Each structure stands twice: as structure tokens, then as C-alpha cells.
Amino acid sequence: MGNVKRQLHLGLFLFSTGYHPAGWRLPEARTDGAFDPKFLQGVAKKLEEAKFDFFFLGDALATSADMQYTFPSQMIRLEPFTMIANIAAVTEKIGLIVTANTTYAEPYHIARLTASLDYLSGGRTAWNVVTGADVRAALNFSREKHWDNAKRYDYADEFVQVVKELWDSWEDDAFVRDKAAGVFIDGSKVHAIHHEGDHFSVAGPLNVARPPQGQLPLLSAGMSERSQELGARFSSAVFTGEILLESAKRFYSGIKGKLAGYGRKPEELFVLPGLVPLVGATEEEARAKYRELNELLVTDFNLKPLSDRIGIDLTGLPLDGLLPDLELSTRPGDEAQQLVRLAQRASGHEDITVRELFHYFAATSRGHLLIVGDPEQIADQMEEWFVQEAADGFNICPPYMPGGLDLFIELVVPVLQRRGLFRTEYEGSTFREHFGLERPDNIFAAKRVLQSS
Predict the structure, then answer these.
(1) Per-residue pLDDT tens for 40-67?
(2) Per-residue pLDDT tens over the stretch 163-214
(3) Which superfamily does 9-276+374-452 belong to?
(4) Which residues are 212's β-sheet partners?
(5) How many other β-carbons are positioned within 10 Å of the β-carbon of residue 182?
(6) Which of 358, 388, 396, 435 has its CA 20 to 30 A from that of 96?
(7) pLDDT category of residue 452 using cuts at 50, 70 and 90
(8) Residue 218 is inside which H or E element, if any?
(9) Helices (H), 146-263
(10) Residue 367, Cβ neighbours under 10 Å: how many?
């Protein structure tokens, strides 16, 4: 893998009404796509035609009506395993990522569900491992409080290890299926895992044969030290929320540097920041759509979170007044200037107002980078992050649906392909093959080989 030329990896992070909080209010936008199987299938088919690596659905285990003003796409949505099974039935090549929260699940259930999906998809499934950040979820699962970061990741580390052992509990050639002899399986190649740990006691074996990919690729997200360690130990890809180039480069080199401690190579882990591309056929069209979206925001213009973000108290300032001196910021270094520069770049001019700065960060409140421009400008910024090793690809979050995705596919993807940055055909048919990852040996079979040598 080390000699293969790097190419961008692209996936869709599905926000059915768009990533921008006001995306659903555009006249051309769909508002009911989250529950329309034809819409969801159509999105996946578009991605497959464009040769995307994956279709990804996040998940959450709590909600409230007030999310309609900040993140309507994540307020209500289908259960991910059911939805991904539906998508698998109408696609052939695109990878499919399913999210499962370890804090509120059992390893045997997740091993069974994920292995089953890998069969139904023909080896195209990956598991996004999350521990949950919403404290309200505990109250939906008969708990008084959400566990702290350390406990969640202690639990997740063992959880993932159990699932991986269960996936391997049937060796690939365990099934004899000899009709004449009446032997269906070779019992010596079926393994109870007998796991006894701090959190789980699981006998095994799993009642699903070893998945087509052997081990499903794992994905994870999060910026905490514990989340990075989990990613370095187990994950094939990590999702990040970096929006500043230099910070993203530090994260990239930092997490890749952790891999050696787990006997892994840098090319075995892919760093995929979230990207919100607002593209137009021309720069003017893109900026006009950006202004239209911002004007549709429903907000009380609470400036306190933004003030904290840039380290300057903006409360009480006129919304249409210019920003105060950024040198007054309490943020380290020139971080405030870098953050403001993102809003200036999106707006297309430097003398932005408090209102324009608020609009930019309201549109990116979930932490992903919003860029505005024509196809070449969008591709330029993607290439800059890729070449400077801030990213191995991107988790694309269209600002509105379906038009935001359609324009990216129609206008930006061909530019990336012409530059030799993105594939024109799939290299294989499984999730692992899309990322150039080898199918791993069965741990029990490998142990037998070692013992007999």
C-alpha cells in the first residue's frame, strides 16, 4: 500500500435537510427526505455513480423540538441499521457506514447486526464506533446519568475487542457442507471466545459466519485523547471536525504518529474531516446562495457562544457594525484572525460585520468547515488540505439537499478527477478495497498456524 499513489477518499455524511440550519427553507429543498426510502435510495445511487467511497448515516439517541432552529437534520431520522440494509439492496459498489453507540448496546448484538449487514451488502459495510456525547441519552436507557469520557472509552475499548473476536469465531473454511458424509461444519474451526473482562462476559461463538470482509472496517470520531487512542488502535478511518488548516495538519500527524504503538502503519488509517461545500457554477452564484441561506436563519442572534469562540465580547455591539480589533482576543496566537478569515473568505470580502460573522458560525455550529465558491475554488481548497497532509479525503456534508449534493457531484467531482485526485472507476467491490485495505487473517486460524509451526 505504501507505493500506491494517494488519492482522495470521498463520502457523504447524510443530513437529509442539509447541513446548514436553514437549508430546508430553500424553495428547491426537500423537507421530508429523512423518511422517504426513494429519496434515500436515490441519494445513494447518485453517490455510487460518482464513485464515492461511502454513504454514511450518523446517529443519536436523544432529541428535542428546539433542535429545529440549530440542527433540524439531526432532530429525527431513521434507525441506521434498518436504513443501511435498505440502501444495500439497491446499490452494488458504494461503501455503507452504520453507526452504533457502544455505551448503550451489547457486543453480541452489534457483532451480529454488523456481520449480517456485511453479508447483505456483499462486503460493503463498516461500523462507525461512537460512545455518545448527548447526556440526555442516559434518560432514554434507564440510567440516571451519562458516563464520563474515561468510563465510556474504557467500556468502548473492551466492547470493540469483543466484537472483533466474535467476528472471527468462525474460521473462513469452517463450513464443510459434505452431503455424502453428513458433515456440515468442521467443529475444530468454530471457536467460543470465552471473554471475561472488566465490563463483559461473552462466551461465543457468534451465530453469524465470519463476515465477507473478515473484519469490518471501523471508523471513529472525536478530538479527545481517548478517542484518538481508540482510533489509532482500531479504526481504518477517523472523522474530524477541524476547520483550520494548521490545526488539521497537527491532528493528522499526531494521530498517525500513534499508530506505531499499536503495530500499525500510517497508511492503515485515513483522516477524513467534515466539509460543507457550497458550490455554484460561478463564484457569484455560490455567494448568492450563501446569502440566501443566511437570510433564512431563524435566530435570536445570541452572540455569547460566538464571543467565546473568538475570545472577544461581541454582545451589545450593533449587528451591522464592523468587527472590533481582533488583537483584543483572548484566544491563543492568531486563532481569532484565522477563524474570522474563514467567514471573510465565505462572504467574499474582508470588512465583514458582526452579523456576517454570526451567520458563518451559525452555519458551522456542528464543527465542520464551510467553503463557498465555484468548482475550481472548491477543488483548490480540497487539494490544499490533501497535499499538505491535513486530510486523506473528506466527509461531504452538503448545505442543502438534494441540490447541494447534485452541484458538488456535477461540478466539483469532475475537476478532482481531471486533476488525478479522485477515482473515475471503483478499484474493487468491498469497503476495504475502496481504501486499499487487505482482508485480515482470522485470529484463531493464525494462532493454530503458529502453534503447529
Answers:
(1) 999 999 999 999 999 998 887 777 788 7
(2) 999 999 999 999 999 999 999 999 999 999 999 999 999 999 999 999 999 9
(3) Luciferase-like domain (3.20.20.30)
(4) none
(5) 7
(6) 388
(7) low
(8) strand 218-221
(9) 149-167, 225-234, 245-257
(10) 12
**How far apart (Å, rounded) are the C-alpha atoms in residues 353 and 265?**
46
pLDDT > 70: percent of the chain: 98
Output 385 or 70, whichever has higher pLDDT.
385
The CA R_g of the chain, rounded to the nearest whole Å, is 23
Query: The dihedral of CA 192, 440, 101, 207: what is its sign?
Result: negative
Decide if 101 contacts 140 (C-beta within 8 A): no
Q: Characterize the bridge pairing of strands 201-202 and 237-240.
A: unpaired
Provide the CA 376 distance to its chain's centre, in angstroms: 25
Number of residues that make up the chain: 453
Model confidence band, residue 2 (pLDDT cutoffs 50, 70, 90) = very low
What's the CA gap between 304 and 317, in Å, rounded?
12
Instruction: Give the side-chain half-sphere CA count within 13 A for 7.
Output: 23
For residues 70 and 365, the answer to whether their CB atoms sit within 8 Å is: yes
Query: Up-side HSE of residue 429: CA atoms within 13 Å toward CB?
Result: 9
What was the pLDDT predicted at 365? 72
CA distances from 105 to 56, 222, 242 (A): 20, 19, 29
| Residue extents of the structural domains in the chain | 9-276+374-452, 282-368
Contact 387, 6 (CB under 8 A): no
DSSP 8-state class, residue 5: P
Is residue 1 pLDDT above 60, yes or no?
no
